[in-house]
Amino acid sequence: MPPMEILTTKAAVAAFAEAHRRAGRRIAFVPTMGALHTGHLDLMRAAASHAEVVLASIFVNPLQFGPGEDFERYPRDTEGDLRKAESAGCHAVFLPSVAEMYPPGAETTVQVTALAAPLCGVSRPGHFTGVATVVLKLLNITRCDVVLLGQKDYQQLAVIRRMVRDLDVPVQVVGHPIVREVDGLAMSSRNVYLTPAQRQAALCLSQGLAAAEARWVAGERDPRVLEVAVLAVVEPTAGAVVEYIEARNASDLGDITEAPPEGVVLAMAVRFGATRLLDNRVLGGPP
To answer: Taking phi first (over 0 means left), then psi (-120 to 50 degrees means alpha), and beta for anything else, what does residue 148 get?
Structure first.
């Protein structure tokens, strides 16, 4: 495999993509904000099973951070990230500046309304507008055939799927299962913020989901009972501040009073100090 290419402009990405398309090669794309961990690298390795060319991006998108959020302190390790991406089989990484992505005078955004409203949308208004806008731009810039996204950010995945469908974007969206540490903690770039005590306490997220799944396996189908099963584990944990724990329709994130054929997603956001962690589990649904 030749050395991985580092592309810093939209024009360079367009030339890279066009050369591979002319050669009849498919392109799989993995968008990231950097601070790469094993979950990101799994996405990149999985991308190779969908296309001959694997392209990733590293861009901390200011549009999806609200006032007082962690844009400035979001973990950044460009040199380390590039080494990791190359080791995972990436053929190229798009590494744009903010000015390259958002030229002076840029004012157009993309809004997915209903799907973005609940869950994280309540406490982070405008967040998914920033996500949808940057992802659409990246899909247009890379002209990829398939994009891979992690399922830990379940609502984000749902928003991108809906945007792609509604705007007729010619790309396949593939959700990749959550990658976890050996002890069950979902991998996240923000895990580096946790103190050792918070890191241990954060295990309550996966433990709470496991408790709800056990109730599901035993036949429980009441969404509120499943929520309580998670809450009973998470809420008593020292330092855990629950933002939300909700059971929703796994397909459209709609409110539910009973388990729908599409399945139930149990989703949560919990803070440990200044660090906000997400986790989820899908129960039921089509085989």
So the answer is: beta
Q: Does the annotation mark 20 as catalytic? A: no
Predicted TM-score (pTM) of the model is: 0.96
Catalytic residue among 20, 37, 40, 91: 40
pLDDT in tens, 152-163: 999 999 999 999
Q: Quick: pLDDT tens for 118-137.
A: 999 999 999 999 999 999 99
Which amino acid is it at 52?
E
Rounded distance, CA 249 to CA 258, Å?
Answer: 9
Q: Say whether both 226 and 149 belong to one domain.
A: no
**Are residues 144 and 35 part of one domain?**
yes
Residues 119 and 159 in one domain: yes
Residues 6+ apart with CB under 8 A from 95: 6, 7, 8, 57, 58, 59, 78, 82
Q: What residues pair up with 266 in beta bridges, in sequence order?
A: 247, 281
Q: Is residue 286 part of a domain?
A: no
Amino acid 154: pLDDT: 98
